[in-house]
Amino acid sequence: MSEKNVIKELQEELFYAPKHASEIISEEEEKKADAFAEDYKYYMNNGKTERESVKYFIEKAKSYGFTPFDRQKKYSAGDKVYMNNRGKSVILCVFGSRPISDGVKISAAHLDSPRLDLKPNPLYEDGEMAYFKTHYYGGIKKYQWTAIPLSLHGVIVKKNGETVEVCIGEDESDPQFVITDLLPHLAAEQMKRTMAEGVKGESLNILIGSRPFSKDEGSEKVKLNIIKILNEKYGITESDFLSAELEIVPAFKARDIGFDRSLIGAYGHDDKVCAYPAAEAIFAVENPAYTAVTVLTDKEETGSDGNTGLNSSYLKYFISDLAVMGGEEPWRVLSASECLSADVNAAYDPMFPDVSEPKNASFVNKGVVITKYTGARGKSGTSDASAEFMGKIRRMLDKENVVWQIGELGKVDIGGGGTVAMFIANLDIDVVDLGVPVLSMHAPFEVISKLDLYMAFRAFKAFFEQK
Ligand code: MN
Ligand code: MN
After folding, report:
1. Could you report the per-residue pLDDT of 273-320, keeping only the tens digit for each?
2. How confident is the model over 71-105, as pLDDT tens digits?
3. 116: CA distance to ligand 2 center in Å?
4. pLDDT tens-place string over residues 320-367
């Protein structure tokens, strides 16, 4: 063997150098990944908000034989249940053959994505046009939300207690909404502002109409016309907005990106690109050894507080119920459990190379990314997975030929972020972040790779199928 080949072989053996998934997986598996992506796009167009996602996943769970969890009932291995938490988060569970004291295997992803929420009193008129006032939800770059088509989703609880569901702007025949921006001709002053200030929070008002109620004299006639239309359609009056959760999201559909169709552009990949494969993995699992749990949660983007977020006790209560059924103390089951915190990481972006440290960044198409720690400023606010648990997960992925890489969220001190991992770790559960690399994260239109999405599915499935 030549000297050159010896070096190459040794490097191959000794270096850590993640490869493009296409170089590792078979053509047949690539086809499976493409087919998986088709179903994912359908979901992305039908589950844009946490409420719509919960509905989508419960319907699908039912078709796989899942039934509502009833703690009075006796369950046996292979039984499938779901627990709907207030219509905004959901737990899917398949009972294992091992005793519950061996712990459960959890995949935890979030269904909420950055967006604009309507204020409690949103409707007003200005310049003979009607608007909704918003308060943004999660981390957004405000300028990205102007001059793009928007849709309105959510629920309104009326004075009489009746709930109406709203979804406008997704159907081809629906009207859509928009936030206007200044023309460049007159934007000299605006262009001098920082990008953070270019579009201000109180300017994120949604244009919703422009025709007055009648020719008669009077003020706020456009606003009157809008509320009249809403009254006819939903039976609501202005005060009903006080008891509503209405969310403005991009009206874009999920689309293939690139001549090779290798990528998907969509609103809300963070974190539906992990929620979807985590759900599909538990749907695919038959008779697991360990009890398998997929929790699809809410409120991650605002810090996981609130009773539908993972900083609340709903997951702990659910596992406690399983423990009690199996005659075990709840904390013993929690302490024996393991979790993949299924969340996205920032993919290396050649347009912005300065924020990443390439030896520890994740890359599109190099498989699922394992993120040992998140946080900021000296790992503040991270659970930091142990070497032992990292070791266990990489062995599991290698054994199942799942393409994986490691990733860190940006260079040291450049920023940072968190996931639900720390809230699960605080229950004394072993946990590590594992998810899909995303380009343009938190933008109205984010980009992921089809191969990475499929590898996430394979990873969660392998996790649930441990013996
Ligand atoms: Mn996320
Ligand atoms: Mn996020």
Report:
1. 999 999 999 999 999 999 999 999 999 999 999 999 999 999 999 999
2. 999 999 999 999 999 999 999 999 999 999 999 99
3. 14
4. 999 999 999 999 999 999 999 999 999 999 999 999 999 999 999 999
CATH 2.30.250.10 fits 115-250, yes or no: yes
Quick one: tokens of 186? 């007159």
**How close is the Cα of 435 to the center of ligand 1, in Å?**
9
Give the number of whichever ligand sits closest to the CA of residue 271. Answer: 1
**Could you tell me where the beta strands, DSSP code E, fall in 6-102?**
67-68, 80-85, 89-94
Distance 393 CA to ligand 1 centre (A): 20
Among the bound ligands, the one closest to the CA of 139: 2
Ligand nearest to the CA of 110: 1
| Strand spans (E) along 17-65 | none
pLDDT tens string 13-25: 999 999 999 999 9
Domain made up of 15-113+267-464: CATH architecture: 3-Layer(aba) Sandwich (3.40)
- Inform me whether the pLDDT recorded for 1 exceeds 70: no
Q: Give the start-to-end residue ranges of the domains of the chain.
A: 15-113+267-464, 115-250
- For ligand 1, the distance from its centroid to the CA atom of residue 109, given in whole angstroms, is 8
Residue 409 pLDDT class (50, 70, 90 cuts) = very high
Q: Is the dihedral of CA 102, 372, 341, 454 positive or negative?
A: negative
How much is the pTM?
0.97
Residues 6+ apart with CB under 8 A from 141: 195, 442, 443
Distance 275 CA to ligand 1 centre (A): 10
* Cα 46 to averaged position of ligand 2 atoms, centre (Å): 20
407 Cβ contact list (under 8 Å, min separation 6): 345, 346, 360, 361, 362, 369, 370, 371, 437
